[in-house]
């Protein structure tokens, strides 16, 4: 064979070797690419166009996180807002509720409170039950002190001393938590200035009644089992300016609150509580467990 033919055959062989080597490299590269893609899926890095999901640790399980259900009502993990009283709030949903307050003079003396809720149904029949969006009752505060629940739009304000008073009404869920919009409680506040001539509460030394044997007295007993009064809450008539003694036994540690008189006493499990006061303010006043909002008594002082 001539030298020229040998040289041509050699070059053809070299090209075939190069092509074979390139093909092998391409095959290896493709295999490595498939392997890398498979490993990348396990690394937690989502591919483009695929939805990303996080583990329970990423979501913060074990911490106080806020979740929202389909109704728009949010809850905080690890916290039961039901039957909390005076502190918890419940987010309102659209259409957002509101309340407007005005005060009118009562021709017979004192003042009438007119509280009108909007996008909110007053449901006294469901008080102290589970939260229901868009319904509940109202709470009345005078000078920062809770006076009573409001189940209707009209209410006679309690006796007021001379001076400037802040009257505030807030919307409350069935479970007594305050309704809130973006963390702000739904309420309305008006200021009432009472002159000396208009005052319906005259401050004096009520201790003078303590040892006056001519002052009538009345003892009211309440037994609490399972956080509720035995036999349900009662309405009790009380004579104006009489001495009232309330005796409470409970199987639950709580606080007993006499609204309107701003009386608050703790009651321990198995340790009877007894306290007294002079019923010198006329009106209807709630006695309830402060923590749960459970109504115990309605005192009608007249």
Taking pLDDT < 50 over at least 5 consecutive residues as the criterion, the unreliable ranges are: 1-9, 34-86, 205-211
- Strand fraction equals 35-45%
Number of helices: 1
Query: Residue share in helices?
Result: 10-25%
Overview of the structural elements:
This protein is mainly beta. The chain folds into two domains: 66-194, Immunoglobulins (Immunoglobulin-like); 214-301, Immunoglobulin-like, CATH 2.60.40.420. Helix content is 13%, strand content 41%. The protein is built from one helix and 22 strands. Strands 6, 7, 8, 10 and 13 form a five-stranded mixed beta sheet that branches. The chain has a five-stranded mixed beta sheet with strand order 16-22-21-18-19, with no helix packed on it. A hairpin with a 5-residue loop joins strand 21 and strand 22.
Write a concise synopsis of the structure shown.
The chain is mainly beta and 302 residues long. The protein contains one helix and 22 strands.
Question: What topology emerges from the helices and strands here?
Answer:
Blueprint (H helix, E strand, L loop, with lengths): L2 H40 L23 E3 L5 E3 L12 E3 L6 E8 L5 E8 L2 E2 L12 E8 L2 E6 L3 E3 L6 E11 L4 E4 L2 E2 L1 E8 L22 E9 L2 E2 L4 E5 L4 E8 L3 E5 L4 E5 L5 E6 L4 E7 L5 E7 L1
Parallel strand pairs: 3-11, 6-7, 14-17, 16-22
Antiparallel strand pairs: 1-2, 4-5, 5-9, 7-8, 7-10, 10-13, 11-12, 14-15, 17-20, 18-19, 18-21, 21-22
């Amino acid at each position: 064979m001539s030298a020229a033919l040998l040289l041509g055959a050699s070059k053809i062989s070299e090209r075939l070797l190069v092509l074979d080597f390139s093909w092998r490299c391409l095959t290896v590269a493709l295999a490595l690419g498939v392997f890398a893609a498979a490993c990348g899926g396990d690394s937690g890095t989502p591919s483009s166009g695929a939805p990303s999901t996080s583990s329970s640790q990423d979501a913060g399980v074990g911490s106080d996180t806020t979740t929202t259900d389909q109704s728009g009502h949010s809850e905080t993990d690890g916290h039961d807002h039901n039957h909390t009283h005076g502190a918890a709030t419940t987010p309102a949903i659209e259409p957002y509720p509101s309340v407007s307050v005005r005060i009118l003079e009562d021709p017979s003396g004192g003042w009438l409170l007119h509280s009108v809720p909007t996008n909110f149904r007053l449901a006294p029949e469901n008080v102290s039950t589970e939260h229901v969006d868009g319904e509940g009752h109202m709470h009345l505060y005078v000078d920062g002190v809770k006076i009573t629940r409001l189940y209707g739009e009209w209410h006679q304000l309690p006796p007021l001393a001379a001076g400037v008073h802040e009257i505030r009404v807030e919307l409350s869920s069935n479970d007594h938590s305050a309704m809130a919009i973006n963390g702000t409680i739904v309420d309305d506040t008006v200021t009432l200035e009472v002159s000396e001539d208009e005052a319906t509460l005259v401050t004096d030394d009520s201790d003078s009644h303590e040892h006056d044997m001519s002052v009538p007295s009345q003892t009211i007993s309440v037994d609490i089992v399972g956080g509720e009064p035995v036999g349900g809450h009662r309405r009790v008539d009380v004579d104006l300016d009489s001495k009232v003694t309330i005796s409470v036994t409970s199987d639950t540690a709580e606080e007993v609150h006499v609204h309107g008189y701003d009386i608050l006493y703790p009651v321990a499990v198995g340790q009877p509580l007894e306290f007294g006061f002079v019923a010198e303010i006329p009106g209807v006043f709630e006695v309830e467990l402060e923590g749960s909002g459970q109504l115990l008594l309605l005192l009608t002082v007249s």
